[in-house]
């Protein structure tokens, strides 16, 4: 097809993003044709907490990076080798880029594909150290290995009616669900979710979908805690000068939980009087304190190998001071890493389409324009209890 104009959200250095004209995508990987790819007209693309780590200057992300790894779009061009996706299809794009051919992909470990990032296993759109792929906070984007990667929605009209829910399938809903599954959440579980940002709220909604008896969410931002309460969760304000175990015991009668999900990651702060100071290992250590012997800890929260903004030299290299002996003594299991989105997204799509979960309501989606993206980043960084979803062509608003 003929090239058109394209604009995207660009990282310009710590604390600054702008909306600029960028290249229109091509079906190409460097100098090679990408006959297995498609070009999407983006319907929705979301601002993620992981993006905020880069925008705050807490990674080695280069200036000029086109941001965005949460993408839902309409196919406008297919490479000649694409067999099962067609022009006009509305699709969800897993944030993991996966070839479908390597050992890890064949084992369902699409978050650590071996062929899409020359530096290490695993790739994502618009993210530091994740293969150099152009991000999707834009009007158009190229998606490789389309037959393998894309989740096609079965009905266009139904998809557009549910688009603010379905847009969350690209990352945060499967990520929150993955955190709960790897923490062993099931019917009757008592679950603690660390963090009430969008992933934490998605995890809380996932825990309820999985049949948890009690879902407790801890955070320091009252607005986010009110959002967690709005769909049936218990909430703990971590600014209180009390132990986490004591605060949980006030709710459940015992200072422990069956399952713990860390949705905070490496920019964690201490609790109580220490809440203004970063303590990057505090959530993981709290997880071992609070989780019962034999319990499981899911860690979808992001931890990095390099954090130039960390307060101490060890943390700058991703080395944290963990009381790991406690976890060993309690026979805990820990599960880390990117969510393999394709493991869950089709089933979660069905849960949305059949009305089993109101995930957009749970995470409080707010639609914004592409030009409003800098404001969305600023509001999100300020602790807004919202999930900002960019509508770059105004198709959802229309």
Automatic annotation (TrEMBL):
InterPro entries: ADH-like_C (IPR013149), ADH-like_N (IPR013154), ADH_Zn_CS (IPR002328), GroES-like_sf (IPR011032), HCHO_DH_non_GSH (IPR014184), NAD(P)-bd_dom_sf (IPR036291)
EC number: 1.2.1.46
Domain Alcohol dehydrogenase-like N-terminal: 36-154
Alcohol dehydrogenase-like C-terminal domain sequence ranges: 198-265
Keywords of this entry: Metal-binding, NAD, Oxidoreductase, Zinc
Pfam families per UniProt: ADH_N, ADH_zinc_N
Cofactor: Zn(2+)
UniProt-listed Gene3D superfamilies: Medium-chain alcohol dehydrogenases, catalytic domain, NAD(P)-binding Rossmann-like Domain
Single GO MF annotation: zinc ion binding
Top-rank EC class of the record's enzyme: oxidoreductase
Signal sequence range: none
The family this protein is said to belong to: Belongs to the zinc-containing alcohol dehydrogenase family.
PANTHER family noted in UniProt: GLUTATHIONE-INDEPENDENT FORMALDEHYDE DEHYDROGENASE, ZINC-TYPE ALCOHOL DEHYDROGENASE-LIKE
The protein's name in its UniProt record: Glutathione-independent formaldehyde dehydrogenase
Lineage: Bacteria, Pseudomonadati, Pseudomonadota, Alphaproteobacteria, Hyphomicrobiales
Protein encoded by which gene: fdhA
């Amino acid at each position: 097809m003929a090239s058109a104009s394209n604009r995207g959200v660009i990282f310009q250095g710590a604390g600054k993003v702008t909306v600029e004209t960028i290249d229109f995508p091509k079906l190409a990987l460097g100098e090679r044709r990408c006959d297995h790819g498609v070009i999407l007209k983006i319907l929705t693309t979301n601002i993620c907490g992981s993006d905020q780590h880069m925008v705050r200057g807490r990674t080695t992300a280069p200036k000029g990076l086109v941001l965005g790894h949460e993408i839902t779009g309409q196919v406008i061009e297919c490479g000649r080798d694409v067999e099962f996706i067609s022009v006009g299809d509305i699709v969800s794009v897993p944030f993991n880029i996966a070839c479908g051919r390597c050992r890890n992909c064949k084992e369902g470990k699409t978050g650590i594909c071996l062929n899409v990032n020359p530096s290490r296993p695993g790739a994502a759109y618009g993210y530091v150290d994740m293969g150099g792929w152009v991000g999707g906070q834009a009007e158009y984007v190229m998606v490789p290995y389309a037959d393998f990667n894309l989740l096609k929605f079965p009905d266009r009209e139904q998809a557009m009616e549910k688009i603010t829910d379905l847009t969350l399938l690209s990352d945060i809903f499967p990520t929150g669900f993955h955190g709960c599954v790897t923490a062993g959440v099931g019917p009757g579980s008592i679950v603690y979710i660390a963090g009430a940002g969008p992933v934490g709220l998605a995890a809380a909604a996932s825990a309820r979908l999985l049949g948890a008896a009690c879902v407790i969410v801890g955070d320091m931002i009252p607005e986010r805690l009110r959002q967690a309460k709005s769909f049936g969760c218990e909430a703990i304000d971590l600014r209180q000068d009390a132990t986490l175990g004591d605060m949980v015991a006030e709710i459940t009668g015992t200072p422990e939980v069956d399952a713990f999900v860390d949705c905070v990651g490496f920019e964690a702060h201490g609790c109580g009087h220490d809440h203004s100071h970063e303590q990057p290992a505090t959530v993981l250590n709290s997880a071992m304190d609070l989780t019962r012997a034999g319990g499981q800890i899911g860690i979808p929260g992001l931890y990095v190998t390099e954090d130039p903004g960390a307060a101490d030299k060890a943390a700058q290299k991703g080395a944290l001071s963990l009381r790991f002996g406690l976890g060993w003594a309690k026979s805990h299991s820990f599960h880390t890493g990117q969510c393999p989105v394709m493991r869950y997204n089709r089933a979660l799509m069905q849960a949305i389409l059949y009305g089993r979960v109101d995930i957009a309501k749970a995470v409080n989606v707010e639609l914004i324009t592409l030009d409003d993206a800098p404001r969305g980043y600023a509001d999100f960084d300020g602790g807004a209890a919202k999930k900002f979803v960019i509508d770059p062509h105004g198709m959802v608003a229309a």
